[in-house]
């Protein structure tokens, strides 16, 4: 009986802390961290330090993605393709390199409602950093997941940039 009560209490506590990210909250975050922004709730295009970023949401299916186009796929050599795949495991962390419509993208995909404001701001930063570090460290944060990443140039430091932050 006491375990049932404990489980019920944990479940209710978890519900009370559940996130409820919305397009309105995303709009506020994107306006805070971007240099310029266009679009409307559910579809935004914005720029941070000359890097284009797009966010698309689907409220009905509880999905969102933040993406940034990097380079035409046809311009990638085999080493870049391999490094992007290695980075997806070791250095890209919450974002991934992905291909669509003959473009290589940095991509963050997640259920919408479960996100916190801090996670969204961090996702934007990681998409941005994966874009600017493509071709060097292929990293989205200073953190590197342990393992072999010998193909990626370790002598290069991740690019440092000023980045507006969103206060949750």
Task: Please outline the helices and strands.
Layout: H1 2-17, H2 23-33, E1 36-40, E2 43-48, E3 51-58, E4 63-72, H3 78-90, E5 96-100, E6 103-111, H4 117-132
Antiparallel strand pairs: 1-2, 2-3, 3-4, 4-6, 5-6
Helix pairs in contact: 2-4
Keywords:
168 residues, alpha+beta, six-stranded antiparallel beta sheet, 6 strands, 33% helix, 26% strand, globular
Number of alpha- plus pi-helical segments: 4
Strand order across the largest sheet:
1-2-3-4-6-5
In percent, how much strand structure appears in the residues? 25-35%
Rg from Cα: 18 Å
Count of β-strands:
6
What can be said about the biggest beta sheet? 6 strands, antiparallel
H and E string: HHEEEEHEEH
Task: Tell me, briefly, the overall form.
Answer: globular
Instruction: Specify the structural class.
Output: alpha+beta
Mean pLDDT reading: 85
N-to-C CA distance: 39 Å
| Low-confidence runs | 4-16
Task: Please give the share of residues in helix.
Answer: 25-40%
Q: What would your notes on this structure say?
A:
It is a single chain. The chain has 168 residues and is of the alpha+beta class. Helices cover 33% and strands 26% of the residues. The protein contains 4 helices and 6 strands. The chain has a 6-stranded antiparallel sheet. Helix 2 (23-33) crosses helix 4. The longest helix has 16 residues, at 2-17. The radius of gyration is 18 Å and the shape is globular. Residues 4-16 have low confidence and may be disordered.
């Amino acid at each position: 009986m006491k375990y049932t009560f404990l489980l019920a209490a944990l479940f209710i506590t978890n519900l009370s802390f559940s996130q409820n990210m919305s397009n309105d909250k995303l709009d506020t975050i994107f306006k805070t961290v971007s240099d310029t922004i266009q679009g409307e709730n559910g579809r935004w295009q914005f720029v941070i330090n000359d890097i284009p970023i797009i966010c698309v949401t689907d409220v009905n299916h509880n999905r969102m993605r933040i993406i940034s186009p990097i380079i035409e796929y046809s311009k990638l050599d085999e080493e870049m393709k391999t490094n992007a795949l290695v980075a997806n495991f070791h250095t890209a962390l919450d974002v991934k390199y992905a291909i669509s419509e003959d473009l290589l993208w940095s991509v963050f995909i997640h259920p919408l409602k479960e996100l916190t404001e801090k996670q969204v701001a961090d996702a934007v930063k990681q998409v941005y950093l994966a874009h600017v570090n493509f071709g060097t460290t292929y990293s989205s944060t200073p953190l590197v997941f342990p393992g072999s990443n010998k193909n990626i140039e370790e002598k290069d430091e991740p690019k440092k940039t000023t980045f507006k932050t969103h206060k949750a």
